[in-house]
Amino acid sequence: MRMSEFFLPTLKEDPSEAQIVSHRFMLRAGMIRQSSAGIYSWLPMGLRVLKKIEGIVRQEQDRAGCQELLMPTIQSADIWRESGRYDDYGKEMLRITDRHDREMLYGPTNEELITEIFRESVRSYKDLPKLLYHIQWKFRDEVRPRFGVMRGREFLMKDSYSFDLDFAGAKQTYNKMFVSYLRTFSRMGLKAIPMAADSGPIGGDMSHEFLILADTGESEVFCHRDILSFDVPGDDVDYRIDQQPVVDKWTSLYAATDEKHNAAREEELGEELVAARGIEVGHIFYFGTKYSKAMNAVVASPDGQEIPVEMGSYGVGVSRLVAGIIEASHDDDGIIWPEPVAPFGAGIINLRAGDALCDTTCEDLYSKLSSAGLDPLYDDRDERAGVKFANMDLIGLPWQVVVGPRGLENGMVEIKSRATGDKQEMTPDAVLNKLMAV
Ligand code: 5CA
């Protein structure tokens, strides 16, 4: 992409409505624009990151044997009456009446709809287990939408739903999702800590939240410092084997949100206790037969009896993650994208657009990096160097290749790592080799 053609409305000044750093940088870096309270448009720069995050979430769900489908945003009130949640959900639910006076709603979550799909199609224990997910916009009419996409009203969620014959199977599925979440967040450069949690309006009796640590997190969290250095299972993870040992390890040390925190542990753990703030990026639930009983989702068991299926649900805040990653990775000048979620692989800064040698060197780098699939963003604008540097730091691409007349006298360009600030002079060919190797 050439910056001169890119739709990138950056802001020089800090927007006054932004209270936290991710909101400020998302607005300034031209990623999002508010359309109404808690509802945002995703501009090209923001959408690129959202898609990258979605891609990682999808890969890790698929790897764990979860199958993608797509349910609508608008649901019928009828199924929510069956589960008993239509009234319970209160004002958070956006209710709509269609032209035939039928009551509809914009889905805040999908337990009811997936249970309806399941009960119409699955009859026998032989079809179990099943694990399904979708990535779809949700709406919750939050009392206080704030912090940009961190707590929006409309937000993108990945939600998975599991169906098992018995508790043992359901627990194994829960463990699998637990481990796939550790992997998902780790691939985005995040350290997410699972913490036992209350299940709230979703219900059930086993639940973990996944929190990333950041100063601006909404919840106060406490954990044993050793959890921060636990290993996450690698690409060779085998989900056919029960992941209970991994779950046991990750839940063996103290970790709690303020709701569940036991102050007595502070003295006991002393120096080993980390008190910080956290952002909830995922939440998993086992709720047994809560929905299957209420909505009559039954299967024939091996001995011919009809029994309600055991269920769980597993959510990732996809749009919240965009803000969460920025909270965890930035400096005073802007965002520092971890490579796997960066909107572009590298930026090329032409310090003197119009200079023949600068232009041809940049064009050559641009076309070779593009062919190599590195997706470069080329700042070809006729702007001052200071403006270009500030812009590139703000949008936070992992690598910046700086091409200027002085370096080119010796055939050299400069490459800078956004994360470390390290700069190295090298030939354009050496830059290509270096970037292709990362
Ligand atoms: N049905 C279950 C699991 S699929 C569920 O809805 N869980 S949840 O309520 O915990 O939401 C899942 C994730 O969505 C949360 O962990 C959080 O990361 C994200 N999320 C929830 N509310 C919002 C919001 N208002 N804005 C942005 N992200 C949100």
Structure characteristics:
14 helices; five-stranded mixed beta sheet; BirA Bifunctional Protein, domain 2; globular; 32% helix; binds 5'-O-(N-(L-cysteinyl)-sulfamoyl)adenosine; nine-stranded mixed beta sheet; alpha+beta; 438 residues
Percent of residues in β-strands: 25-35%
- For the termini, the CA-CA separation is 20 Å
- Label the structural class: alpha+beta
What's the alpha carbon Rg, rounded to whole Å?
Answer: 24 Å
Looking at this structure, what is the CATH superfamily of the largest domain?
Bira Bifunctional Protein, Domain 2
- What is the strand tally? 23
Q: Can you walk me through this structure?
A:
By secondary structure, this protein is α+β, with helices and mostly antiparallel strands. It folds into 2 domains: 21-335, Bira Bifunctional Protein, Domain 2 (BirA Bifunctional Protein, domain 2); 344-437, Rossmann fold (3-Layer(aba) Sandwich). It has 14 helices and 23 strands. The protein has helices spanning 21-28, 44-63, 77-83, 85-88, 111-121, 167-187, 244-250, 264-269, 290-294, 318-328, 356-371, 385-395, 405-408, 428-437; strands at 32-36, 39-42, 67-68, 74-76, 94-97, 103-106, 130-139, 154-164, 192-196, 206-213, 219-224, 255-257, 273-288, 298-300, 306-308, 310-317, 330-331, 334-335, 346-350, 376-379, 399-403, 413-417, 423-426. The strands form 6 sheets. Strands 3, 7, 8, 9, 10, 11, 12, 13 and 16 form a 9-stranded mixed sheet that branches. Helix 1 (21-28) packs across helix 10 and helix 2 runs antiparallel to helix 6. The protein is globular, with a radius of gyration of 24 Å. The model has no long low-confidence stretch (mean pLDDT 96). The structure holds 5'-O-(N-(L-cysteinyl)-sulfamoyl)adenosine (5CA). The site of 5'-O-(N-(L-cysteinyl)-sulfamoyl)adenosine has 21 residues, from strand 8, strand 13, strand 16 and helix 10.
